[in-house]
Amino acid sequence: MQQTLLMQAGVSTPPRSTPKRWRYLHWAGLPVSVLALVVLWHMVVTVGGYRAFILPSPALVAERFVATAASGVLWRHTAATLVETLGGFGIALVLGLTVGYLLAHMPWLERTLAPLLAASQAVPVVAIAPLIILWFGPGLTGKLLIAAMITFLPILLATVVALRGLPRELREMARISGASRWQMLWYVEAPLSLPVLFGGVRTGLALATTGAVVAEFVAGREGLGALINIARGLFDTPLIFVALLTLATITLGLYLAATLVERFLMRWELG
To answer: Cα(43)–Cα(59) distance, rounded to whole angstroms?
Structure first.
């Protein structure tokens, strides 16, 4: 049904694949960039002669990473941050998609909620986090809410933009064909909104990690944010770098996972 409507409305589908030679170059860019950053980092430390508590060398950070991982400390804190990140993202995803769908189809609701949404962004989440922890406690609930709050708006905006960006001719053709509201959503709106929606999803995943770390800064005995607090109190700069690099790895991994899911869904919908 989707392909028929696209052809009747004169909307072309995006190309399904990229030539292999360019695909290989795309994936090779990441390790090359990481290697270049490590080399530059090592050169700065060597030339500047910085002490370890100011700027540790890559070798020292790697050594500390292995030691922290072997003791199990790193994995325990990483697991806590992942649970908070994915839980907060899941809450924001459900709410963002639902509210975004309603706003895209109900202009009066958007006029009502738009000022409230804009006002909510005037106060940084880091300033609200202590109140959330005070109201809901330092347990998992408060941390999930903080991660969800910082993730909600990008998913909401991506949903509204994606749905309103669909060609009007395509909607009219679907209505002429007798498509119900559910069929419109399943066969037309959802598949064609995927590229824009996943842009919001990738941004949301990165922000969910930030929200989890902010919550751990405010109140947390476990998590990479708490580990950074502990390392800062001990002036253990290599451990801070271990936690930061682990956070970067988590964010990159979630970004790549979202990209793979998007490609799978695009091939399934258009294939």
So the answer is: 12
Give the pLDDT confidence of 57-66 residue by residue, as tens digits: 999 999 999 9
Alpha carbon distance 252, 244 (integer Å): 12
Taking each continuous run of H as one helix and of E as one strand, the counts in the chain are 12, 0
Query: What gap in Å lies between CA 163 and CA 176, rounded to an integer?
Result: 19
CA 130 – CA 134 distance, rounded (Å): 6
Q: Are 170 and 135 in contact (CB under 8 A)?
A: no
> For 47-88, what is each residue's pLDDT tens digit?
988 888 899 999 999 999 999 999 999 999 999 999 999 999
Query: Is 249 buried (19+), middle (13-18) or exposed (0-12) by CB count in 10 A?
Result: exposed
Q: How many CB atoms lie within 10 A of CB 184?
A: 18
Instruction: Look at 29 and 94; give whichever has higher pLDDT.
Output: 94
CA angle 106, 91, 138 (to 5 degrees): 135
Beta strands in the chain (DSSP E): none
DSSP 221: S
pTM of this structure: 0.84
Q: What whole-number distance in Å separates Cα of residue 2 and Cα of residue 119?
A: 39
Q: Given pLDDT bands bounded at 50, 70 and 90, which one contains residue 190?
A: confident
Asked if 207 and 157 count as a contact pair (C-beta separation under 8 A), the reply is no
- Quick one: three-class SS letters along 215-234? HHHHCCCCCHHHHHHHHHHC
Which has more confidence, 30 or 243? 243
